[in-house]
Amino acid sequence: MDHCTHYFGAGPAALPAEVKQKIQKDINLYGDTGNSILELSHRSEQFSSIITSAQSLLRSLYAIPDNYKIIFMAGGATLQFDAIPLNLVGSAKHASYLDTGFWSRKSANLARKYVDVKFVQGLIDSREKICCIDPEQWNVDPESAYFHVTPNETIYGVEFTQVKKTDIPLVADMTSCILMQDIDISNYGVVYAGVQKTLGIAGLSVVIVREDLIERVSETTPELLRYDLHVKENSIINTCPVFACYVTQLMLDWVKRNGGVKAMVEQANMRASLLYQAVDSNSKFVNHVCENNRSVINVAFNSSDNGVINNLLVAAKKEGLTGLEGHRNAGGIRVSMYNGTPMGAVHRLVELIAQA
Known about the structure:
Layout: E1 6-7, H1 17-28, H2 45-61, E2 68-74, H3 77-88, E3 94-99, H4 102-111, E4 116-121, E5 123-126, E6 129-133, E7 147-149, E8 152-153, E9 158-159, E10 170-173, E11 190-194, E12 204-210, H5 227-232, H6 242-257, H7 260-281, E13 298-301, H8 306-318, E14 321-322, E15 333-336, H9 343-355
Parallel strand pairs: 1-14, 3-4, 3-7, 7-10, 10-11
Antiparallel strand pairs: 2-12, 5-6, 8-9, 11-12, 13-15
Helix pairs in contact: 1-6, 2-6, 3-4, 7-9
């Protein structure tokens, strides 16, 4: 098998080679501007075209209805943890948050500064498996301002693709799975994501928000966090992160030219199937997630023998496969396989797991 180096880190994630080559060219000279993309003004016609193109591509890829607005905001998903309640609580007394792991808890804990948070237990025990999800057991208060979910938790590799229908707006943090899950946007009030995993580089988030929810914003919300102002100014309230927006536009274009969301999902399933089969076939390793909730994006596994983990990390590094250390709260191995992950790197890692 051909040698294939790759960074498997959880984020910022590796970009496709084709996208990096385009970036290298445009860093020297962007189109007919006479300048580098790094020097492009946020008030220029060229940047306005980048924003418009990115919005159009995303709307096309997810068939986003006309009554949804697409905005780009500086900062990642963690900034949205504050922005969501500030924009959506309105006159409600509380909001509901599904607890499925570290990131869902962090988003809920930050929201507590602005609204009473009601936790909905998402994880259930199932024999030796510790990470299982049953949407039928979600008990959501119908008077909540919104119901917040995190469809893919990156630390332990827990994912769900089916959501329980509710009469209140469903809000989803899709930082690690946007364009890697085939979703119906019309089922959601808001979908948001930091783009540094599946859609670009750190420093930018994308928000897809239903029009009727925009008017809920609290008047005390800081200007740069107000969805209504971002909609009004087409995401250009201030000097926004031009380069990050540009990379996201390139990634959206790359996804569309490579088969769209359907193709990204199929490839993610192929990569994950190979990797889980390798882990399950080696008795030295264990994965604690129920089969139905195993993430196809972030595969986490461990061993009772730390030496086995260390040896695998060393062997992988020699092959140029890096970023495999588990999260500091979990340990073990974590293999993050976003849209830019080449199949050759997965095959080589599978070989190393078999040899461990």
